[in-house]
Fold these 2 entries.
Entry 1:
Amino acid sequence: MSFSREVQEKMNQFAQEQSQHYLDEAEMTYMEKLRRKTGQAKNKLLKKLAKFKNRSETSLEAQNDMIIYMSDYMNDLIAGGLSEREALERAKADLAFRSETARSSDLQERFERYFENRDPADYEAIGLFYAGFLFLGSAIGALVGFLGSGGRGNFLAGGWIDTLTGVVVGAVIGIGMGLISNAIITLKKKK
């Protein structure tokens, strides 16, 4: 069944608006999630980038899918006795984007809290602790292994394996120390 031009245009407009809500929810980018914490310069950049989002191939596909689904739904409603306009209004009401489930609301709140409280400096500090402890542990392990195997004279005659073992053990200790520092920073952050 084909619809009047006016109704078809309203369906197209509705599909364009609603498909963007679904896409925003499903494809929220890292930058969009951090938008609340960024300054005005980043907000301006996001507004410029948002212009391209509506023109993307994925956005157009979602709009087309919405139009097809809405057409089928409206045809069913009209077959059930509703007028074309009543079917349009009912389809718009029934197909409007909603993210009101308890699970999605809870998840959205968690994401918001996470990105509001996220401090990149914490992650940089954790990374530096890992790297520092890894290098320090490897260096101390290599030195202990080298000296424990008899030093320079015995290195080529089998002492290299002791040095290598020392490096591996030192690296494992360094990673362990990095994990401890990560835990300390995370616990301080929760207070």
Entry 2:
Amino acid sequence: MRVASFNINGIKARLPRLLEWLEETRPSVACLQEIKTQDEGFPADEFEKIGYQAIWHGQKGFNGVAILADGERPVEIQRGLDGDPEDDHSRYLEAEVFGLRVVCIYLPNGNPQPGPKFDYKLRWMSRLRDRMRAISAEEVPAIVTGDYNVIPHDRDVWAPAAMAADALMQPKSRDAYMRLLHDGWTDALALHNPRGGLWTYWDYQAGAWQRDHGFRIDHALLSPELADRLVACGVDKSYRGREKASDHAPMWVSLKA
């Protein structure tokens, strides 16, 4: 079973690339971020044509997350995080599918920092930790995957000095991410690539893709009940080089049934 994550950076603009990827790699579950469309504009019928059913949590113009499953409709458990009734961003979607608890997240970027956007990022990460602790208490096989907007270590970026002032690399961002791991979650890509050097994002500017100036901000965290089933993981890097591609590449984990 393959569970994948893809920040598509606008589902309408990238739909041909997304459909190509789904048909060519055929993940059992695909979690999408930055769909950037209202609920009524989500192209569910296009996915149904190729055998995928979906649930989604949209928002006009930015944010938005979705979970697709091959031949089965995900059963929604929760959308949005508790703890801030004024937070109306579409960044969290949780479902049951194929016997797994699947959580798709689009964590706040936090730039510029310091400032209110960075403060919001840290609060959101604290709320995420609360929810992940609740999931852990259920002792279910679970995956929390998506765009975390955190570069966990210097080895996860092409040049640490180039990103040193960015919210993605601040000590408080990294600390909040590490707290999730200390709670018992496993970073799949880090486990299988301990030396780093594996990127999931390349900016559109300054020839970042052509020069391989990227970093890793898309992660898959596995509960203890699922970590033992991890067989392989990786990044579908070549899709970043296609015409009108997202600035992210899809990442995936392969699990024993």
